[in-house]
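Students often ask why we bother encoding 3D structure as a string. The short answer is that it lets us treat folding as translation between two languages. Here is a chain of 175 residues written in the first language.
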Amino acid sequence: MQQAKTSKLNFKAKMEIYNGNPYINISKERAQTLKKGWRKPMPVQIQINSKPSTPWRINMMPKGDGSFYLYLHGDVRKDSGTKVGDFVEVKVSFDNTYKNGPMHPMPKWFSSALEKNAKAKKAWDLLIPSRKKEILRYFSWLKSESARERNLKKAISVLSGKEERFMARTWKKGK
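And here it is in the second language, the structure alphabet:
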């Protein structure tokens, strides 16, 4: 079986911020170079200023016009010694090795909150499996109690139907 060729991008860009999330803009043209016609979250491997030494795996998030947000995790920014406003060297390649795998376990603090809010629980139960997986993976990265509380409040709010941004997307009617 022949493995698909992996396209790579190397370019310089300014690190920007959107809703508190540092990111690099990936234009429609650049995204098409990585994977033509891709419109959903795109699995990629990245390095910023050649860091980390082993490329970081992440999903670029679609903007809706063919371009993508390449959100930069704090560990990547720390390792590369970069901050918002810096011009950085960006290396991005489509992650052909990405496979759907098991979900992270649901944290007790999240399941307890869902049990106390029937509307949020119903919306959670109706979410597509990949969205649930994405949320649980995100929750598994939270280190501080304040980050857990802040993200729990937002998750319950959007799942309860409030229209707002959470996890790099605008939620409407619990999805």
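Translate back mentally: The chain has a mean pLDDT of 89. Keep this in mind for the problem set.
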